[in-house]
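Blinded run. Sample ID left blank on purpose so nobody reads anything into the name before looking at the predicted structure. Input follows.
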Amino acid sequence: MKKLIVVLFCIFLLAGCTETLKTEKISVTAGHEMQVHFIDVGQGDSIFIESPNGKTMLVDGGSKGSGKQVVSYLQELGVNKLDIVVATHPDADHIGGLIPVLNSIDIGQFYDSGKVHTSQTFEEMLTLIDAKNIPYNVPKTGDNIVFDDDLQVEVLNANEHATDNNDASIVLKIAYGNVSFLLTGDAGVALEKEMMQFDVKSTVLKAGHHGSNTSSSEEFIKAVHPEMTILSYGEDNKYGHPHAEVVERLQAIGSKIYTTAEAGTVIVSTDGVNYNVNSKEWSEAIAEAPQTPQTSASVEIVSKDLIEEIVGIKNNGNEAVSLKDWQLISIEGYQIFNFPNVTLQPGKTVYVTSGTNAREGQNYLKWTKQQIWLNDGDAAQLLNAKGDIVSELD
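Blinded prediction complete.
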């Protein structure tokens, strides 16, 4: 009789847990907790994982300016070694912060998408990995990464031959008992469709591309059906992240939403059966996607030669325009050219040059001798001194 009372009491306790999962297949180490830290790095991604048995993994590090913050956060947690570091793809808002990490913390293994990029940030990262003799791995779709005996870490995508940086993204599904995390990098809608050949259903989703509508299709959201979703983006970002349709899709399936822009770092703790979150749900209004303003002084990108690395910017208006503090952005690598104090006269064109044939003088401005633009496609944005997008060219 006493045994029956104890059993009934245990059942009562489990029933009272508000975050208990609905599935029944459980295989965990009793009493061991896993934590996943979605670090607030502004407009970027950085995710730190503490496994049930004390192993550590860092997925991305935000932009280079966020690297010191990531290092400081890890050191405050007492982390002096990372067993695994994953660079999902070579965009600067994902790998830039890994450079300070590489300079400050010992790393056991480094996983990279294998997607080659010629940006200075990417080259610096590879140089550090080589100089420190860190084992370097390029996983394949369908691989399982050995991390912790109590966890399953499955690679749902990794494509070093992808034509687009985002579609090279290493996508990980990490499962601990009944609780799973889907970390999608910047995977786009087409890639999401491909990944649905796998079991993508997950408890927690890190939404792709910071809540952009280039990711998180309705079909994919329904398939994942996350109980909670993390949106990692910067407050008042110029991209309008998160986009309204993404938020609406998540709300439609009843997913709780947490954002680093509002809550700061979001920490999810789980014992493989239940989970809890250290933050309040997102409460902000949906951001509106930025609109390209119609201005009387019509300065716009009129040409872009990806092979020769020359971008033409013309003043189609009737007034001279100072380009001081304006910016030209390569979207794929998020590289930024800051214009010097030059004035563009009506009807005139200035050319921003980069690559091995970069030149300057007369109406040419030199950016860098390094290759900036992807030959197979790289959108460009022109921002004025206020940070408004005045022109875009795909």
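Unblinding after everyone has recorded impressions. The chain is about 20% helix and 30% strand.
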